[in-house]
Structure formats: C-alpha cells, structure tokens
C-alpha cells in the first residue's frame, strides 16, 4: 500500500510581539525616566501595567483614545506615547494599527488577553464599523460564527485595555459615514485630548531636548532599544503577591475615584464608570513604581491619571450624561438651522407677510420676554424632527428639567396657545430662544486647578 502524505490546513496567526531586550534597569533609565513630568506619557505607560490587573479584580475591558486636537495633530506625539507604552511589553512591532477588519481585530484582541493592545490611527478604520469595533473590544467577546460543517465555532474572548490614537475622535469618524455614536461607545473608549497644553504636543517636560520632535525621537529610539523586561518583572511581582492584591487594588482604585469625583454634583453612572477605569490605570502605574520598575516618584502615576481624567471630562463637556448632552445639542442645532420655518405670530395674518415653507410653528417677541423670543412648535415637528431618535415623552421631561422647554399646567410638556388661523387653542411645545440651562455648576470646574502644580495624591501609593 503506497505511503499516504497527510497535509494539514491549519489556521495560523502571528502572535503579539512580546519580547525582551535589555534589562529592567536600562528601560527604567532610558524610557521610564522620560515619563516624569509628562502626564499623557506617564498615563499611557501606566495603561500597560494596569491591563494585567483586570483579571485580579474581575474588572471589565475598556480603552482610551489619544485624540490629536492641535493644528499639527499628526506630529503631536500620540504614536510616540503608544510606542513607549508598548515597550513595557515588547518590541516596536507590539504597536498595532486600526487598519484592519473587525475579524482580524478579534484575533488581535485574543492574542493580547490580559495585556495592553495599542492601536494607532483610528482614521484608518472603516468608519461604518468603528463604533461596533469599539464595543467589541471593550465587551471582551467576538462574534458567534458557524464552522465549515455548520456547527458553532468557539467564540473568541479576551480581557484587555486598549490604547488608541488618532487625529479625530470616534464620533467625528462615525459621522463621516452618517452614523451616530451611542453613549456606551463613548464610555467604553474614553477620549483624552492629546495636547497637554504646554506647547509641545503631548508632552509637558522635554528633559533637556530642544523641542517636542527631538524628545519624541529620543523616546522612540529608547523604546526600540530597551523593551519587554519590565512586563516580565511586573508579572512576577503580581504572582508573588496575588492573594492580597485584589483587595489592595480595589481600595486604591476606589480612593482615586472618590477623589476625582469629589467636586462633581449630580454624578451620572457613566462618569463614575470611566473614573474607575482611570483609577485602575493609576493603580497599575503605582504598583509598578512600588516594585522599582519605573523610577517615578510615588504618586506620579496617580497624578497623571487624574490630569488625564479631568482632561477627558472637560473635553466631554462636563459630567452631564452623554444622552442628555447629545439631545440638548440636537435641539439647539435644530433651532439654529430651522428658525426660519417658524412664522411670526403677530404677522401671520398680514397679507404682505412672507411665505414660510414647511412651517414648523410660530415665534413671538412678547414684551415680557426681556428681548428674547418665544417659539411655539407643532407637536409632530417636535416628535419627528427636533427630538428625532429619542422617545418624545422622555425627551420632553429632560428638556423641562434643563429649563429648555417651558411646561404647561400640571407640568405637562405642552401648553394650550391661541394661534393665528386656528379656531381653538392648540397644544404646542413652547421654547425660549436663549435655551438656557439653569442647573448650577460647582464653584471649581472639574478641569480647573488652583495652580500650575499637578494634583497631589491623597493617600500612600500601593506597594507590593
């Protein structure tokens, strides 16, 4: 009987670039030392140390996005930060790109389980898929698929923190494909303005270099020369103290969250959830510092995480829940674009009044309105256009609470108003032109500090 040659058609994947070169001391001297005084850089490197902590406390996956907001966003240092963060774990090839299909990103996420996944240039991702991929990475589960014989294939699962970068944010990228971000997507991928505000892009302290470009080049070279050893040492330290670490991690994460949210009234759950993820990053950086891996002073990682959290909160527009913020912006935008569709009430029956195509209601300038206008909007226009995509009843309640919509008797969302051309009073939605939001703001805004000094840690750094 002739010999049979068996050919195996296997699905092979390239593993993540976990590797080591140089020692922990060399990485600390040439990479870690350059992080001192740079909030975004310290934070990015801390993300790499925080990812293995997810499993210890049962925390969910999530991500951060360094968004270039300067006029020279493409050279602001975002990718350099990702390279430095990636050097904690492996070689320069550890940095991945968003330019991939959602299927291939599933495989990448699985390969980076319990580690950090850096993804460069969000703009290279297909905009129609970007939002769903953000959900997928943070949810830790891939798609369910059928195998060649029709049976269900094993679903890919992972647990990680991803560090993204791009010149634009997720909402702008999705908008290019006429898609709208949902609150859950923004919570799962917190966008941090890349510009640190010191005139050097992502960096505040250049460590004797003449400019940000020279500093970025020095850091990139160092990250390509010394890498991987800190992650090995860090995992060994975690294993040695595995029994007592979960309680310690939760304690310091919760301490950070309480300090970060102390001056924010009417705190929504979305903000608390993101603050806890920033807190976990702070703990990761402090644990690595306590293990002697970073060379940073105690509290540096915590301070950097607090600065970045406040930058995220300011860029987000404060602690208002994302759904409320989006609805208010949508309402304002409608009136900015369509106020010409509201007929002047006092001229409605004038033979010389201009025609109003697609009339949406009326507007008036009564003497008791302090110079502002009153808008009377038809009910169908309100439901089908102004709050399109939202439940009209829920939207009306929110707008009344925010002082944008003027309620009727019994706190009903509409008022009975006598309008020209109608025999009987009509129920309409009544808005003021200033669209004020009267809710009080705290005395100290979340992103403001009383001095140029970084915020101080309020308790001792965690130690192994």
Descriptors:
16 helices; alpha/beta; 41% helix; elongated; 464 residues
What does it look like?
With 464 residues, the protein is of the alpha/beta class. It has 2 domains: 24-319, no CATH class; 324-432, no CATH class. It has 16 helices and 11 strands. The longest helix is centred in the middle third of the chain and has 22 residues, at 269-290. It is elongated and about 90 Å long. The chain starts with 23 loop residues before the first helix and ends in a 32-residue tail after the last strand.
Give the integer mean of the pLDDT values: 86
Radius of gyration: 27 Å
DSSP helical segment count: 16
N-to-C SSE string, H for helix and E for strand: HHHEHEHEHEHHEHHHHHHEEEHHEEE
Judged by helices, strands and strand pairing, the structural class is alpha/beta
Q: Main β-sheet: number of strands, strand sense, barrel status?
A: 6 strands, mixed
Rough shape?
Answer: elongated
- Domain count, please report it: 2
Quantity of strands, as a count: 11
Quaternary structure? single chain
